[in-house]
Amino acid sequence: MWIGGHRGCGVTDRTGRVGVAQENSAQALAQAFSQGADFVEVDWVWDADGEGWLCHSMRLSEHIADPPAEFLDQLSSAQVQQLVGLGGQPLMSLSALIQIWSDRRVNVEIKGLKGIGRERCSPLSQRLPAQWPKRWWFSSFDPLDLIEFRARWPAAQLALLSTEVGDHGAMYADGSGCLSGSQAIDFLADFPDIWWHPELTDRPNFDRTQVGWCASPAAEQANSLDGLTGLITDRLDAWRPTE
Prior knowledge:
- The protein has one domain (2-239): Phosphatidylinositol (PI) phosphodiesterase (TIM Barrel, Alpha-Beta Barrel).
- 20% of the residues lie in helices and 18% in strands.
- The protein is built from seven helices and ten strands.
- Strands 1, 2, 3, 4, 5, 6, 7, 8, 9 and 10 form a ten-stranded mixed beta sheet that branches.
- The longest helix has 10 residues, at 143-152.
- 40% of the residues are buried.
- The mean pLDDT is 95.
């Protein structure tokens, strides 16, 4: 089973974790791979110029002390380059991620404007590369993201994220919720080659490539991992301990 580091080596912003680099940073990814991660999971958002960055939320107050704007897409690329995260590192750009880690497995979650009370914006409206690294795959809680990606990049591997509670953390201003496990299965039935990223606490039986995730390390112990191709974990140290 592949073991993947969530946001690099796990959630750190505003959690006070010691010994783990700032989430989604270049340091966190390097730390994860040096610790033996088979892949890393990162979050993709964009700035006012359409350039991609690795950050869990567009809402800057979640990741930056005294941010100059409420949302990252209100800042130019030059302004974003000056930001320093809560862990003391700059934000990593999508272009830098491609340059440094194109030969490794990377799961890029299409985060965009989800979870901040705004209208949906297509990731295809941003500045994007002509080709993506072959070993990368893209996941989203929004099925429309995957449908749009499939039309633009037919060869890209895609994965649908689902939650235990479908309305947990409404994605957009219209209140649209994430799909639950059973709803995800209904959607995936029409797309046999799309992977599934289920929350471990809601994983109905389904014969599909599955990369599981959970909101807490305890869930990894309390729920079965049978049938998983991979696991996205905040406790990479528990799966790939260092001497």
